Fold each of these.
Amino acid sequence: MKIFVTGGAGFIGSNFIHFILREHAEDTVVNFDKLTYAGNLANLKDIESDSRYRFIQGDIADIEVVRKAIPDDCEAIVNFAADTHVDRSILDPEAFLRTDIFGTRVLLEVTREKKIPRYVQISTDEVYGDVEVGQFSKETDCLHPSSPYAASKAAGDLMVMAYVRTYNVPALITRCTNNLGPNQYPEKFIPLAVTNLIEGMPVPVYGDGLQVRDWLHVEDHCRGIDLALRKGRVGEIYNFGANQSPEWPNVKILDAILQQLGKGQDMKTFVKDREGHDRRYAVDTTKSTTELGWKPTWSLSEALRQTVQWYVDHPEWWKPLKSGEFLAYYKQQYAHR
Ligand code: NAD
Ligand code: TYD
């Protein structure tokens, strides 16, 4: 398959490109990425001279650039490109609207014009909003996004469904829970915690720290996307999640990280809660299991151990990121907390 990946220099997109090149010897990938603060070509250094891989820098919201970049023989678009950090969306929602909504519309439009046979929108469980203990969001549930990030992703999803219905664009959507693994920008909870601790800095815990995310290893997510790409039905939505039982609230994740790094409880700092903070996400994965044959392979303790060790082993990857732009953001983040 000839795949046009957007946002492939970020966390999940770069893991997905590695997954495709490793698992499908006949596939080729064009990676189209704007290289925002979250895009990092170091994530793809080892494949940069692979003849099956090519990188193009560009913005998915710029239709002329997208038209030129997509090869005529493209067989599928997989859209990872997005602004993705909830806290940044609270500080300044605008970029989120441009990329996550308008950019999605541009990709759908070009899929239609060029009659590309497949389009996969990478979405998130955050579009459902938070759910009570014991409840699991299904693909057919109403959308109740809480943050500007989640609202912009939800709007992108609705645009996908509108293009399927109105223009018969062969698109489908995946919605996954929080991912962990290598290459995640250190503004997100797990890499922030690990890298802060290595640097001897405390870890901010929002509110009471009892919020629940259903953490899934990024490799399991990539396998799910690959199955949806090849076997998923047009116009359908597929949830992916670990269905962790018992569930791990944020403080339990942090305790495991503290223990692995040999750090004490004094490195945990409770700070003012995030505005509109979703309490618990959980998704029903029956459909992806029965229709796609997908199931997670990593346990959370193994996934967390491997992830923490990866950041310990790769300071050359994250140290340059925790300067300049990141520090300015971090300062702004804590100015109002
Ligand atoms: P990320 O922030 O690490 O990477 C996003 C990538 O998109 C970066 O490489 C960035 O340069 C690129 N990008 C941003 N705006 C762009 C634009 N206008 N044009 C082209 N490229 C642009 O994000 P991630 O964590 O890898 O998430 C990827 C996708 O998966 C997102 O759509 C996100 O909503 C979704 N998702 C993420 C998670 C998670 O836990 N990280 C869970 C479920 C779904
Ligand atoms: P995050 O990684 O930002 O992902 P999301 O908000 O999209 O789920 O945060 C994961 C959880 O960790 C979430 O409940 C917010 C919390 N959190 C903290 O407690 N402290 C932090 O410094 C960060 C970044 C997040």
Amino acid sequence: MKKSSLHSIVYQIWPRSFQDSNGDGIGDLPGIISRLDYLASLNIDLIWLSPIYQSPDCDYGYDISDYYTIHEDFGTMADFDLLLEQAKKRNLNIMMDLVANHTSDRHPWFIEAINDKNSVYRDYYVFREGKNGHEPNNWIGIFGGSAWTKVPNEENIYYLTLFTPQQPDLNWENSKVRNEIYQIMKFWLDKGIAGFRMDVINLISKAEGYPDKDPHKKGYQFANELIINRATSHDFLKEMYHEVLSKYDALFLGEGMMMSRTAAAQYCGAANEELDLMFHSDIAILDCGPLGKYDFRKLYRWSVPEFKKVFFAWQVDSAKNNYFIGNYFSNHDFGRSVSRYGDDKKYRIESAKALIMINMAARGTPFIYQGEEIGMTNLKLEMSEWKDFEAINDYVMLQKMMHLPAFIAKWVVQKVTRDQARTPMQWDTTHHAGFTKGTPWLKVNPNFTSINVENDDRDPNSILNFTRRLAAIHKEYDVFTFGDIQPTLLKHSQIVSFIRQDDTVRLLVIVNLDRHVAVFKADENWLDAKLIAATQLHPGPLSHKMVFAPYEGRIYCLKGHND
Ligand code: TEU
Ligand code: CA
């Protein structure tokens, strides 16, 4: 299978922070509609909307209380239909976020389930008896604390909540639940959306009997293989493929925690009837300790050789085993890419471009997160400004469970909080960066006076115009999505370089991912190559001894590949 929509560029909108239209300080659908010309100017193909369904916003939309209605903060179904129509007029398609591992605890299914233990909805979720005065097992929640929440009016009964206590996990073993999900998917696909990004889809199957993880260990344990990439999750997705996915010409992208290459090959292998492509998070947690985001033992540092190891492992494996991945350096769950993998001070423009070049030239489908195209940076937020449950809860947990002093817990949270990627989009130099005429729900980064769309639009050498050029080049060459990949200059400690090849073309990508000048020897066969893209407006010539400026990147078309 070689789906044509895999050869797309996807732009992620986190609607709450994109564009407010009515002055309530919250981004909305009419706001997105008003920016469609801008989105089309980026040469992207698909817009992925983070959840826009009805939600009490305990996890900003990832806790859904009605899958069939639009959150009133974002607008109405009529607004959504108009968005779809107006987008299509500009050759843009809309992808939705499907959050189906859990619902909100305000969802009518859950309200019935918790109020009436004989309700059919009880088995839509995972209700279990506690053990010896404790939760049913020792699993830790992904945002800290126990993974179980107690039913207030029943003795010793708990329900599973892997994320916030307001996000009860659905019981996918129940075929009624699976059918509800298929109905939801069909409802939106029939409206004409172009696919789904499926939230934590590798978590939908849990170990039978909900056993303790490492029972001999004290305290809550990360359940790992008891909840992640389980064999049954493939059975569920195969069923979904037959019931829904196979009937639509749309893109189905999985998102998951601790995705392994073996699992990804199964979830979206060309011969497997499951999904089309998969996200992995190994780059996203490159600077974290082995336990993930809040494991600060690496002090959030990383090196180019480490980056290359992880990047090429996925690139080469996906080519070898013929599956597809979504490539991204930024999204709503992590800090801004230029602040994490680039240099958001001295080389902000150069390093933002270098990252965009790697992302667009990699094998798979590139994802750009709102603001990345203008190099938006992290903003250090004071505790009183924090909004995200994860930040607020983990600040407490780090002190309580890991016995960290408050100032270190605060440092960790400020390093990794999702809020810093969620500050409003910076459009222009007017009040609140043109995001809202009211008071923004989350602080606008004060650097909006220099970092904004309007400035970048005017400057031919800007990150924005570079992104547009690279996106246009990406459209020209199928090889970026589907072609083979061979790393080169593998031992170089600053340069990330690879060759992309198919039957028609051979492209050489060279990026200096370091803040110092990089020197390397060009291969004899490269010398007559033709430059097709560069981060600099006037790059130097190709010669035996190459010198690349900090974060400089170039793409060449190599000749004679058919010899
Ligand atoms: O995130 C899934 C996921 O893998 C998280 O563990 C992610 O790594 C975490 O946010 C890190 O801080 C998805 C959504 O993208 C996220 O926004 C939701 O909060 C989460 O699922 C629950 O729906
Ligand atoms: Ca609004």
